[in-house]
Amino acid sequence: MIEQRVDERVRVVTLSRPDRRNALTPDGLDQLETAIADADEPVVYLHGAGTAFCAGADLDAVDALEDADAARDFSARGQRVAQAIETADAIVVAGIDGAARGGGVELALACDVRVATPTATFGEPGVTFGLFGAWGGTVRLPEIVGLGDAMEFSVSGRDLSAEEARRIGLVSRIVEQPEAVSHEIAGNDPAALAVLKERLRDTASKAEQERREADAFAELVRERKRRNDDGS
Q1: Which UniProt keywords apply (predicted)?
Q2: What sign results for the dihedral spanned by CA atoms 204, 184, 34, 61?
Q3: Which of 85, 199, 215, 229 counts the most CB atoms within 10 A of its CB?
Q4: Cα(123)–Cα(165) distance, rounded to whole angstroms?
Q5: Which residues are bridge partners to 161 per DSSP?
Q6: pTM for the structure as a whole
Q7: Contact 182, 140 (CB under 8 A)
């Protein structure tokens, strides 16, 4: 289900179940969580094999859930994966080529950077058959695109084009080769990347964030001075 390779300073994580549009089973979610947790490169590039990014939860797995407790566990698994992406030390870049649906959108929302190809599409179709994405999407989507666009996208069940997704801020760029963006980011200083992710993800009070910002900046300056003094 999950394939990995390292390309210089980028760990490429591939959702590899193209015959099911990379839909995720409970085992697939566990594999993805492990892949993210094990990455020690400064950048992780997450993408899907074949013609889709990710169709979300495997509906066969959903239909096999026996009761409410099993459904809660499945939701919690997806939430743990999204949390692992969000809190990883690495900058996680989602490269969306083709369809991102339901949980696929939710995984992308947890990533630090989202880029799409011109043919990418986005949708939350669960509402059309009595479900919705429950891997943290109802929390992250309004934070990222605003409540109005989040509500319309979620309740309409319609698909968004790459251009529409960029307009509302669901993706930041539309490019032909999304993986190139991950290498562009990986070309920067790893320590600065890690600090920026930590600072931008901080949810403390404004005053505390500013104190931590100053401390982090001071630490980077100290390390830069040490390297300059060592001639490295």
Answers
A1: Lyase
A2: positive
A3: 85
A4: 10
A5: 121
A6: 0.95
A7: no
